[in-house]
Amino acid sequence: MLEAIRTAKLGDDVYREDPTVNRLEELAAKKMSKEAALLTTSGTQANLVSVLSQTKRGDEVVLEADAHMYYYEVGAFSALGGLIPRLVRGRAGVMTSDDIEGVLRPSNIHFPPTTLICIENTHNRAGGTVWSPSQTKTVFDFAKSRGLNVHMDGARIFNAAVAQNIDVRDLTRSVDTLMFCLSKGLSAPVGSLVVGDSEFVDRARRYRKMLGGGMRQAGVIAAAGIIAIEEMVDRLKDDHANARLLAQGLAKIEGISLDQSRVQTNIVIYDVRDLGVTAEEWVARLQEFGIKAGAVEGTRVRMVTHRGIEKDDIDFTLSTAQKVAGQIRREQVSQTT
Ligand SMILES: Cc1ncc(COP(=O)(O)O)c(C=O)c1O
What we know:
The chain has helices at about 1-5, 20-30, 45-50, 70, 75-80, 95-105, 135-145, 155-165, 170, 200-210, 220-230, 235-250, 280-285, 310-335; strands at about 35-40, 60-65, 85-90, 115-120, 150-155, 175-180, 190-195, 265-270, 295, 300-305. By secondary structure, it is α/β, with parallel strands linked by helices. Pyridoxal-5'-phosphate binds near residues 47, 68 and 183.
């Protein structure tokens, strides 16, 4: 990637004159079987321009209750788009058409019009869980029967495809628009892509400019992105295998609870409540050994496998977690005696 960045052909992408960005956008559109694509600075910006391009102020947007767009994107679509979130509690991050139908209200002068349904594949807060092609299609068909659009936050869409051993198009066929990240599992340093029909991408391009995301010689980013798409997808299966190993080992440690059915891709979420510590305390204890984990909230902890994390690192993480859990239990016994 560094070599590709060094030798990238560059131009001014605000004028659409950067050949490397143009190549990346064409590649992304083709991979997803859509008309056009747009490079953005981040997944958050990609989701925001996607939503703004398909709604107007005062519209209602349906989202899963734990959606990244609702939870972690600073309320951008409400703050900047004047949109109202309508939350649906899914199962492992997946909503059904019945779930969505249950919250939709009829057209009435008192209600905001609903225009967009957002789905997340893989679902981050549910633990990297996947939507299957048929789950996606059911929601899409329902949306179309109600005149609604579907946007997919596909930050990790290639993880979802690899985990199910399917072509990514089997998942993108049943959405109007999507975004996916070049960073995260695909290992590029920066960037995400918005994908959909040409009219939508033209609108998204204007919103990206409005949000300060029009970049000039952005080919330095796109060059790494091309390698991300062309060369980094197949190796995601290694991340998934490492995540499964990690989950199996963590589940054996006394005081840790973990639902292995949720470990479908490269994310492992588990609970340390029975160790009597908060997620933040646990994360700090692991950090002392150079292991990075994230506190989701309360006693829930998140670990992610990615390029550069090998089986030896999983073994080291498991033996360290075992050791730290033992220390915590001993400290608690000595405090109560
Ligand atoms: C599902 C999902 N969507 C969107 C994003 C936002 O991406 P970014 O951090 O590039 O803004 C993330 C980031 O973790 C994510 O997990």
